Amino acid sequence: MKRFLLLCTIGMAVTSFIQNLARKSAAAQLHDDPRVARVLDILRSSASATTEEQIRITEIPAPSFQEATRAAYLKKLLSAAGLRVETDATGNVIGEWAGSSPDIVMVTAHLDTVFPAGTDVHVKREGGRLLAPGISDNGTGLAALLAVARAFREAKIKTKMTILFVANVGEEGEGNLHGVRALVDTYKKHLKYVIALDGAATDYVTTAGLASRRMEVSIEGPGGHSWSDFGLPNPIHALGRGIARFVVARIPEVPRTSFNVGEIEGGTSVNSIPSRASMKVDLRSESETELNKLEGLLREAMKSGVDEEMAAARERGMAGSTSLLDLKIGILGVRPSGELPENSPLLAALLAADSQLGNRSRRERSSTDANIPLSLGIPAISLGAGGRSGGAHTLDEWYDPAGRELGLQRVALTVLGVAGLEP
Ligand SMILES: [Zn+2]
């Protein structure tokens, strides 16, 4: 038994030694290949053209579920970059870079923004900064997708794995990752790695998915006149009572967990008892168990809020059989969680890219396109594509392209690190 354990230990040590060696030699191969040096050069020298492209992309409105015009533009540009491009039934634009193997690395950036149709997306310049809703999230990722594909072509790169450059739909909010869900479903047989490009930051890499759940709560009641029907159960009052109970929920610091009542609606006028009130709530956690608990707390709190409002109506003698409140709680979207294994070649490729470029990055957990592949055990990360940004998901979003080549080069080296070069 002891001998067996010893042999196992030696065996594991040898395997990890060989894996490390293989990784180092793959990284060294990238380091020494003149075509890769050319890719890095191109990404540096074309950085300002990439920024101009980012502006053009950002100025095409693309709310979730209304990405078609921006998608068509990306399709045109990916085709011009020499890829075979198609749009799938979901609306994703898929550009194929054929490798010598059917195995796939998917590089993907989401097309959609959180801003509703009609939002002014004209890009303004202030000093070195660009200002517009969606300029960084995800103008940066989309511009990087194109820049990397163009650089690979210009440098005559040949890869082992097939690379799919994908502009996907429905990442944000109620899009609920439906674009990437469809992609993973279509390509899962050969899909080895997914690299999502989202936003700008290069000081971290997302290697774990954050589980989230979006809930909608609605309460309906009889409605009436604020004076003559006073005492009838009021859906807004019930909602308020429920919220007051829910937001005092005790949540753990570890695993980190959060909640947010993000939208609230209801009523028709100040002097009417409303017949309807509703809200949308975002629940997140590093742990599915905590998320389940939190959903349970929300349901309990809302039920108690409704009960309390009904009790108040009864006290006022206004709670007949026709004056009940009807509570409905539904799930708008679910994002599963998952984690990139420590020994994944994808993490090794990213770390090698960081070390080659002298970049330092910490690992983060977040809710991105990488959630879906990670939840299915497919190695995935989400990367910022360079430059600096702030105010994501607000009308004051900004992007500063200074130094963006670092992010572009980091993406390119990571992709090549997992795809592998053919001579
Ligand atoms: Zn994004």
Characterization of this structure:
The chain has 423 residues and is an alpha+beta fold. The protein has helices at residues 2-32, 34-45, 47-58, 68-80, 139-154, 178-187, 235-246, 288-315, 345-357, 371-375, 404-419; strands spanning 84-87, 93-97, 104-110, 124-126, 129-131, 162-168, 191-197, 204-209, 211-220, 224-225, 257-266, 272-273, 276-285, 326-335, 338-339, 362-366, 380-383, 388-390, 398-400. It starts with a helix and ends with a helix.
Summarize the structure.
With 423 residues, this protein is of the alpha+beta class. 40% of the residues lie in helices and 24% in strands. Strands 1, 2, 3, 6, 7, 8, 15, 16 and 17 form a 9-stranded mixed beta sheet that branches.
